[in-house]
Amino acid sequence: MNVTKMRILLVFCVIICSSLVLSEHLESDQDILIPEDWTRVGRIAPTEKLELTFALRQQNVDQLEHLLLQVSDPESAQYGKHLTLEEVTALVRPSQLTQKVVHHWLQSHGVTDCQTILTQDFLQCTMSTQVAEALLPGIEFHRYVRDGISLVRSSSAYQVHEDVLQHLDFVGGVHRFPPKGQDLNEVLTKRRQSGAKFHLGNTPATLRSRYNLTAADVGSAQNNSQAVAQFLEQFYHPADLAEFMMLFGRGFQHLSKIDRVVGVQGAGKAGLEASLDVEYIMSTGANIPTWVFTNPGRHETQEPFLQWMLLLSNMTDIPWVHTISYGDDEDSLSSAYMMRINTEFMKAGVRGISILFASGDSGAGCRHLTKGENSFRPSFPASSPYVTTVGGTSFKNPFKVTYEVTDYISGGGFSNVFKMPDYQVGAVEGYLKSVSGLPPKTYFNTSGRAYPDIAALSDNYWVVTDRVPIPWVSGTSASTPVVGGILSLINDRRFLKGLPSLGFLNPRLYQLQGQGLFDVTDGCHLSCLDEQVQGQGFCAAPSWDPVTGWGTPNYPALLAALVLEK
């Protein structure tokens, strides 16, 4: 018998034979805080079926990060030499020991209905509530409801046997509640209450004029595509997209239909968020085939965002640019979960995929600590070092296509979990040293990953939803698909020249030091309403800043900077 098989048998024997070895917590030693907007309605019956996702510990994560930075750095000889999904799988797939230990652990509890993905680092298993609660001691599943959505979750921490613990990163479908999406109508109400000026509204024509896109700047490459992702009852309607393009897309060649829907579209009313995403990525990245990833959660224990991440690791051919308007407070998530999601972003980036996240609509955010003290509240995945995060701006003059200032809701700040990546150290330190009147250092982590990286207009958009044109739609949910569409156009030109996709943009973006972008230097975003900061977070400044990043796209200049290779 070889050594590996002997180790597997020994571990398996310990797991099923010994009840004296203490179990350990996998994610949290504290009971889980249930968001106030979710209401518990009852205990789950022992026979009711649940679906849980097991994130198996991967191999060579450090090597994956090294490769990602190499293929994303134009100064590297490996720049643009992206990996295939098969090559990523060979690199990070869990060890034979990890796979066998986890499978034996599940099977010893009677869990046999499991599906894996191509990279073999996730297992999705169906089991009864009774089996799940025996498998993960400490949990008790209850049903929770919010706005007509029903979920099954546990409010108590679970434990995993210490011999299995080293082979798992987390178990999905147990704790995390999906964040309440930004109510775009609430943003409109806040703007009106704050005395926001009347605005004629942003349309594709406005955006294309501001960012110097001509009627000729549309896609034509055969192998190009882009995507948006939608979660939890957010659906687009094809009729809305057709109506939007008829009203606002007459000045440029465009597509009026989605190329592919991955998932199941709901049958209810169209979501304002989903309509916004689809209409503006397709009118900025015009004439480029577009996919919609939609996951309403086909089971109450599913996590739609996690399901989208699994799809990226299970599809060999996927779009080159993905834009997502989704986020949660860093402090509401476990470090183990966020670290693993970061690895999933690295897996996508090393394949040449660009992933963009909205920076959020709460400025620097505010977390109320003990003893009346406050701190800023970063958002994840916006704070991930492995995605490109998009902030928001407004026109200085609401009646004219002119220069931009900070949109006060634009999310930005410094991570409390992830250290500042090397690619941005110079830019961020320059900001911290040159700007006077920074918030007190007790409010933010000066050594953390700083965001956003880039920005675009984020207020007063026209959107068609349920066949009705609606004005004043605002948020970084608007700016993110606009930047995504522009990057798709740049990919298009790269493909026509025989160049690879942009992939993970940040190392190149920070090397450009603002080249190809309109610098935004005016305005601040909101934060804690207290005596020390009085509702003000960070302020824009020349070069990079934690409100608008490097600024907004000047398409011809950015195209020139990103199509040329060393």
TrEMBL record:
Which PROSITE patterns does the annotation name? SEDOLISIN (PS51695)
Task: Write out the annotated subcellular location.
Answer: Lysosome
Against SMART domains, the record matches this protein to: Pro-kuma_activ
Peptidase S53 domain boundaries: 201-565
- Entry EC no(s): 3.4.14.9
Q: What is the catalytic activity of this protein?
A: Release of an N-terminal tripeptide from a polypeptide, but also has endopeptidase activity
Q: Which GO terms describe its molecular function?
A: metal ion binding; serine-type endopeptidase activity; tripeptidyl-peptidase activity
What is the role of this chain?
A: Lysosomal serine protease with tripeptidyl-peptidase I activity. May act as a non-specific lysosomal peptidase which generates tripeptides from the breakdown products produced by lysosomal proteinases. Requires substrates with an unsubstituted N-terminus.
Q: What is this protein called?
A: Tripeptidyl-peptidase 1
